[in-house]
Design goal:
The chain is of the alpha/beta class. Helices cover 51% and strands 10% of the residues. Strands 1-10-7-4-2-3 form a 6-stranded parallel β-sheet, with helices on both faces. A 4-stranded mixed β-sheet has the order 8-5-6-9, sandwiched between helices. Strands 11-12-13 form a 3-stranded antiparallel β-sheet, with no helix packed on it. The structure holds iron/sulfur cluster (SF4). The site of iron/sulfur cluster has 15 residues, from helix 13.
């Protein structure tokens, strides 16, 4: 479910709201820090992390390059296991297939475990409109459902709330004051949801991985709710993105090593369930009927696109969000889509195929590359953000002021005399606005940048000015003592400057 009214604003205005929300900033900072440290410790303890990261990347590259083959294998095997398979091209189609199944079963309630695809297709809204109760059973999802909000993190949906805010929400639901104590709060939710599991007509799950060789689907979770959802109700529906496939159980070993460590710093989640079809006669539990809805919803647009195909490699671990300095300040709702952080900044416009509507989201990044370093399957998100910005300009959605600024900078930077003059003028001009070695001028195009940070001022002596002094002071003997490659590089720089002023450069 999208946050009400969220798309009426821009990334900038939503980010402004987040930056002024002290509770949100503290809560997001605290949890992302904990997750980042957990991931760091778990990957160091693994001992061979980079090698496994590369193995993960190769598995995902291979699978997506042969997605038609593995999807076909998965579908044939799942059907042989007794699963009903449906294909949905769009989000509306996916939601309507799930609704048809629920109507056919005369369902009055659906219990759900965590599924980002169900958020993507706004399933709760569609079910509720038809009079069917949709109950989130993941603790974080349950909290944000009560708050009427969208998830603000792929793995920790209620990351932006602290326990006092959560106690307030749950107290309203309980009709009594609940202490802001995690044991009390979790105890209330457990009791409440237990009744819902037993009453529900349908269980709806997401899918972390779908194993082609046996037609099975695999779920990773910590609360046991996905296991309840997939065993208690008589009918199970699974919503899966079409890229969730991996070829074999042997490949799952690599993914099961990468995913929990990257997501929460755990060696393995508390529960890992492999489901191969509905209940058989000898099984103690499980659904009598099982449906898998395979959702495209813009994913096939990435296939064959050399710049964006690797997006389909994503295993939704959330590590790039925890590593991103922008996400850590503004949380997930500022991004405005189902997916947030660096992956959301690229995936949302890519899935929608609509850069115009999302043209500011690609700017919510410092391009530092921390997302790439964190990603367990090495998706080059920082490069993709640049491609997206380029496409935005090519499609005529660029910011005119920014375009003029870049053209002006190119004209100055391409000529050493102009560049030196600009630096000199900047050094003189900045004197009126520099405070404590920084510039905090909240005017014109600098206002947004300087409202929440101090921009560093130009150095009193630039590198080039220091270089000139060095160049004048070094004598022949000192040059001769230098490493040849350093000397040649210095001579080249002096030649490139085109000033001919060096006594050693010619
Ligand atoms: S892009 Fe990488 S780090 Fe981010 S959610 Fe996907 S797999 Fe995880």
């Amino acid at each position: 479910m999208s946050q009400p009214g969220v798309m009426d604003e821009t990334v900038k205005s939503r980010a402004g709201l987040a930056l002024n929300d002290d509770f949100l900033r503290k809560a997001v900072k605290f949890t992302t820090e904990r997750l980042r440290n957990g991931k760091k410790a778990a990957s160091e303890e693994h001992g061979n992390w980079e090698e496994w990261r590369e193995r993960g990347r190769q598995i995902r590259l291979h699978t997506i390059a042969h997605l038609d083959y593995y999807l076909n294998e998965f579908v044939n095997n799942a059907r042989a296991n007794g699963v009903h398979i449906h294909f949905a091209d769009t989000s509306a189609e996916a939601a309507s297939i799930a609704l048809d199944i629920a109507m056919h079963k005369q369902a009055s309630s659906v219990v759900k475990s965590k599924s980002m695809v169900s958020e993507e297709v706004h399933l709760n809204h569609v079910l509720e409109k038809a009079g069917i109760e949709a109950i989130e059973t993941d603790l974080g999802e349950y909290i944000i459902q009560l708050a009427g909000e969208a998830p603000s993190h792929i793995v920790i949906p209620a990351i932006h709330k602290n326990r006092y805010q959560i106690a307030e929400l749950l107290s309203k639901e309980a009709g009594e004051i609940l202490e802001p104590d995690t044991t009390v709060l979790a105890g209330f939710v457990r009791k409440k949801l237990r009744e819902k599991f037993l009453e529900a007509d349908i269980g709806l799950t997401g899918c972390n991985f779908a194993i082609a060789e046996t037609g099975s689907m695999v779920l990773f979770e910590n609360e046991g709710n996905a296991r309840m959802v997939s065993t208690v109700p008589k009918t199970q529906i699974t919503l899966m993105g079409m890229e969730r496939i991996i070829p074999s159980w042997a490949d799952l070993e690599v993914m099961a090593t990468l995913l929990p460590r990257s997501a929460t710093g755990q060696k393995l989640t508390m529960y890992m369930s492999g489901i191969t079809g509905p209940r058989r006669s000898a099984d103690a539990d499980g659904p009598d009927e099982m449906h898998i809805i395979i959702v495209d919803n813009g994913r096939s647009l990435q296939l064959g696109d050399p710049e964006f195909q690797e997006l389909l490699n994503c295993i939704r671990c959330g590590a790039c969000l925890n590593a991103c300095p922008v996400y850590r300040h503004i949380g997930g709702h500022a991004y405005g889509g189902t997916y947030s952080g660096p992956i959301g900044a690229v995936l949302t416009p890519a899935l929608n195929g609509n850069i115009e509507e999302w043209n500011d989201i690609a700017s919510a990044s410092s391009l530092c590359g921390a997302c790439y370093e964190a990603c367990p399957v090495k998706i080059p998100l920082h490069d993709m953000l640049v491609y997206l910005r380029r496409r935005k300009v090519e499609e005529g959605h660029g910011n005119k002021l920014e375009t003029m600024g870049m053209k002006g900078f190119a004209a100055v930077a391409a000529n050493s005399k102009r560049f030196a003059l600009a630096i000199r003028l900047g050094q003189i001009g900045q004197k009126t606005v520099v405070r404590n070695e920084g510039i905090s001028l909240k005017l014109g195009p600098l206002k947004g940048w300087n409202t929440y940070r101090i921009a560093p001022s130009l150095a009193k002596k630039s590198f080039r000015q220091q270089w000139d002094i060095l160049d004048r002071e070094l004598d022949q003997q000192q040059y001769a003592a230098m490493d040849t490659s350093v000397r040649e590089r210095m001579q080249q720089i002096v030649r490139d400057r085109g000033q001919g002023g060096s006594k050693h450069g010619k």
